[in-house]
Design goal:
alpha+beta, three-stranded mixed β-sheet
Amino acid sequence: MLSPWFSLFRKVLKILFAVIAAVCSSCSRTDNAEKTNTAAVEAAIVEAQYSTFIRKPAGPPTVKTDMLDHHGSPISVACNTCHTTRPANHEAKIGTVLLQFHQGIKGAHGNLNCVACHHPDEGYQSLRLANGKSLPYTEVMQLCAQCHGPQYRDYQHGAHGGMNGYWDLSRGNRYRNNCIDCHNAHAPKFPTLQPAPGPINPHASQTSGMQGAGHE
């Protein structure tokens, strides 16, 4: 028969082992959590090595004149060179036949007035938001997004707009076009195109009627 002291000693050992096991388990969970957090931080650091850059216009557009500089290149002038010297024509619409300036502009962008997008109070040197606030030309995408919401949403998700570079930002930078890199601001709709014939199947039988056939 075991003595009472020995039974008490066994109980104390069981309690001690249970405490040690609990502490070790807690440390193991902490270590695993720290490893997970460290891995996430390291992944974020790698991801942040490169960025996505959206191309922007250099600034307000300029208009080429008939004059040449000493290199023989056309001299360009800023919009406000002329527009600040005369009252703005608030009635002019895209597609209006202009008799003095901008005769080369062919517009097809709804029934918009010129001043719907160009700010008349600043000599057309800036864009104009729907609420009347001024917007620099470099932020033209913000202007387009006011009306073309679905396209802008798709752009944000990567389903609209051209890009090059890397999808994986741990390998290199990503470069994206803005709206006017692809679209003419005054006539943004792309013309209807005839798709090219499909590829020829080199393995098709000569008697199958498929050799040289276009893709339907």
